[in-house]
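4.2 Preliminary Data

To establish feasibility before requesting continued support, the project team ran the inverse folding procedure on a target of 219 residues. The structure was first converted into the token representation described in Section 3, and no sequence information of any kind was made available to the design step. The complete token record follows.
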């Protein structure tokens, strides 16, 4: 089964094109001002047009209200909404219903106790993304380059498609997939030369490593 590859936090035409040409399945755009990867609606419109028909466009938000989501949906025309905040199951359900778009809820993981709310979120989401829990005092929930203990997901039984994120690089993604049995990988800081600055060669290297891992999975 193909391994889904998502490159998140893209903010320039040049790096988006590298991700698209290298075969990314999903490209993510961050709408969260505290993040160094945040993009304006104007930039998002331009990047969305560039990505249209070449990869699934993902809009990442953090506890966004309906007005903000409406602006994002109208401007980017995303294929998927990624909810990276503290949205409740009811909020996730309402967003999906209101905007008629697939939703991927992010679950912050540090210990197995963090999976307690998973059944509820799985019942209202189309995908789940497991990311490392941000340390106390962090100004944003993801993109921090932290790795969580993948063995927390080793015995996971989830019918819903899920991805793994958090400190992934070309060097460790194969092990992450082996342990978690995730159907997809999501990277942001792991393909950057500095916070928010995507590195073209690191993007290419990550996607090549993902495809090599995919081949091993098939054997």
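Position-by-position output of the design step:
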């Amino acid at each position: 089964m193909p391994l889904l590859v998502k490159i998140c936090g893209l903010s320039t035409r040049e790096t988006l094109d590298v991700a698209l040409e290298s075969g990314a399945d999903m490209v993510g755009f961050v709408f969260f001002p505290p993040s160094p990867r945040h993009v304006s609606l104007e930039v998002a419109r331009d990047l969305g047009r560039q990505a249209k028909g070449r990869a699934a466009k993902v809009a990442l938000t953090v506890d966004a209200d309906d007005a903000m989501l409406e602006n994002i949906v109208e401007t980017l025309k995303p294929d998927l909404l990624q909810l990276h905040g503290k949205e409740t199951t009811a909020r996730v359900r309402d967003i999906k219903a209101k905007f008629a778009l697939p939703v991927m809820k992010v679950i912050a993981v540090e210990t197995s106790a963090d999976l307690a709310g998973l059944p509820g979120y799985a019942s209202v989401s189309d995908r789940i993304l497991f990311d490392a829990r941000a340390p106390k005092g962090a100004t944003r929930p993801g993109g921090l380059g932290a790795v969580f203990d993948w063995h927390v997901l080793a015995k996971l039984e989830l019918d819903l498609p899920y991805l793994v994120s958090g400190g992934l690089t070309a060097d460790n993604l194969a092990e992450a997939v082996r342990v978690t049995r995730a159907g997809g990988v999501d990277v942001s800081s792991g393909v950057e030369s500095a916070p928010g600055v995507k590195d073209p060669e690191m993007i290419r290297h990550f996607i090549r490593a993902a495809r090599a891992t995919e081949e091993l999975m098939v054997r």
